[in-house]
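Replying to the earlier thread about multi-chain prediction with a worked example.

Input:
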Amino acid sequence: MTGDVWVVLPLACLATGAFIVYLVARLLTSRNDLLALVTALVFAVALVALAPLFLITRATLSTAEGLPAWGHLGEGGAFLRADPGGLVVAGVALGLGLLVALYSGRYLALDHRYETYYPLLLLLVAGLVGMVLAADLFNLYVFCELMSAAAYVLVAFRRRLATAIEAGFKYLVMGSVGTVIILMGISFVYRETGTLALPQAMGVPGPWARAGMGCFLVGFGIKSAIVPLHTWLPDAHGRAPSSISAMLSGIVIQSAFYALLKISLGLGFPARGLGTLLIVLSLLNMTLGNGLALVQTHTKRLLAYSTIAQMGYIMLSVGIGLRCDVPWAIQAGFFLLLAHAAMKGLAFLCTGVCHFYCDATRITELRGTAARMPLVAVAFSVALAGLAGVPPLAGFAAKWFVLTGGVQAADALGYLGLVAFVVNSLLALGYYLPLIGTLFTRKTSEVSETSEVLPQIRISPWMALPLVVLAALVLILGLYPRPGLALALPAQAFIFEMLR
Amino acid sequence: MNIETVWLVTILGAPLAAALLLSLLRGRGARMAGWIAGLAAALSLASTFALLPALQRGEVPTLGFEWIPAAHIRLALHLDWLALPFLVTEAAVTLMAVVYAWGYHRPDERTPFFYALLMLFAVGMSGTTLADDMFLFYIFWELMLVASCALIAIWGEGERRGAVALKYFIFTHLGSLMVLVGLIVLYDATGSDSFSSLRAGVTLAPGLVTTVTMFFIIGFCVKMAIFPLHLWLPDAHAVAPMPVTIMLAAAMLSMGTYGILRFPLSIFSPAQMAPFAVPMMVAGIVSELYGALMALAEQDIKRIIAYSSVSQMGYILFGLGTLTYDGIAGATLHVIYHAIVKALLFMCTGLVIRATARRRIGELGGLGGAMSLVALCTAVGALAIAGMPPFCIFTSEWMIFSGGFHTAQVGLSILTLFGSLLTVAYALWFVGRIFFGARPEGLTVNRQPWAMVVPTVLLAAFALIAGLFPAPVFDWVAHGLTLILGGNW
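Result:
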């Protein structure tokens, strides 16, 4: 086991952290806020441990040497390899995890069972980080399973609610089918190449590898909610505790998409074909996601469908970049991923606050939020307006970048995708705006004539802090997208390195 | 950093700072909110005028630095003659609307947010005229929409305000998206986001020129509320609180005109624009006639004036569509004069509503004696909008018609003349039915706050002065047109 120890450090932090948090919860304290603090600390340490990797990978990319890797399980094999794209996804997951852990410091008073929740949250992120940094298919599979298993349990965390159990079970069944298909794909690839190492680049794939590719597409398609394999998502993201929905919608499905991207390009699947496929699928994702979001009555289900649509935007941008060889479009895709994690995370955390204090799950129950919890109403509006692509928020900057990337491509299918994108962003206003309007309505019910005077609710700082941080991030990324673009640049360069 | 840059920053910075300050003060600033906003608006207007000497010396005040280098986006502001008339109009209307709001708006704990949003609305409009970069332009363009929509949704009158705000947002955002597509195509063609590279010239495939121009014109026509894209306007104007209506009608509608002047007209050559001339003129006439007819048919006095905007924007589009010097100069002048007169008429309407608490024209009448000053001002506004000399709109209409008769479409030009007859009809009938005749039973007249009366009287005076001495304003517009048209017209 040799190599760059930095690569394994974040993962080690998370895994050890999960163990420690469990022990602390069982032996030392059962106070929610302390456990949240310890969990947040673990995330913070992992984030700090991840930071040097950004610098190392940036240096290695420019010198065209190998990426930092760790562990030798066989000839030329490695356990983990830090690639820039994976680092971006892992960094987002850790950052979001940190905020979610803090947020749970109050929010989890709804559910208790802290000793299961925090370790599972850490394991979810550990699986995610391992999956995007894995250097061979075996590890990728194991970590993917770890992430999924944690996610299944967390979705069904409210075990007294039949709907939560149902959603968790549905997710479990579909997700397991997905992982089995991935496993099948791995065996096909092994049949052809005789190795599990995730190749950096390969020649023309043979028939078995192509069959394996098909399996990966379906398996990871389920995990990243590519229409028509998305059916588990609205239930799972709608029924999970809001803090978990924030993680699942914000980064988990995108990480599966990144894994798909990395594997297919690594196996030598032609970029043009993959790009075309992604554009076509993105049309479905956007249209179906936005169309169904329009008719939702539950806030979280609405946000879940919006995630399907936003996933479509990411796929569109990456697809255009791959199909037409436009680096800028891929960079825009990664920027959108960053922006979406902040916006969707914020939106789910806001619904969580409304659920916590006002027991509001339906959209109509959100009336009067502005009068009772002005901070939440403003933060929620920032998230929704950002998702709708209203300037000067991060969603708009991302939209601008995706559009410029698409126009640069000058490609018929790309234009079709852009038209769908623009039409869809108009369609999406149809549900984002009324939701914002509902937040600022003073009447608490449809029938009451007068606006009631509602008492102000003081929000716990555990919940307020993540909201403020994310809202500020959405605004800052919109007005000053340079840091986001700077993160996305090496990721884009890495993808193109794989195409050469 | 020279003094011009400081003024340039102040135009945007003063309202922006006021908005931030007011949001921070929250309930504590309820009493001072109006004064803070008024001061900021006055400062913004003063800075605009402070830049006039520099422009007259032939300088172009600019400010710019790198913002997002990866996407070639700069944070660049730039004031030229083309933007100046719009900027002055916007700043002056904002100041008037804020002063009017002192009387109109009863202070409560949300008042600071009201003024803060008014200030953001103003920032959006002046930013749109000052932006020298497409990304920045679009940000300001949408800020204008977001701020005004929030004002309508929160402080609008009536139960339907949420629905109206939604309709307003979706309609105008549809227009904005068309503009966005146009901007992105131009960005792709020039490889840069800056307007300066656009001014240097753009080469596009002929088919693309047609498409982009169409997108721009339709997109900006939504903002101008040209028939049949006007559907958001009557509702939004009728529901919005009066100061917001004034800013919407007098300043925001003209941003559509600015967009058409700035993008298709400045960038593409007259030959490339020629296919759009007749459609623009026809759309203008249809809008003009439709707006005037609806104004005649409407019962709500605020909606009458709102439809009059649809009609007046028709004149402007007609003027632009003539593609002649006279027509475009007339259209630009009309933007300024229409702003004065429309603000005046809405202020008078607001005063009538405030004094009587009635909005239906059938329930009003015989107010001339009790509200003689307002009656006089309304009469000035009505005569002005009907194009009566010596009030200001006479000059601009003259120019627009003259532009029309310089083209081959004399028939269309005669139609516009006919349309102005309808304008006379609804304007005079409006005055007649409110201020003359018998006063209906139970119609009482309350006192009107001075803060609402003073700007009204000022604007009525302006409408006369601008009509008697059109030279200075005409001078600005002429400078702007040489920027667009060059010497070859």
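The longest strand of chain B covers residues 62-68.

Feel free to reuse this layout for your own posts.
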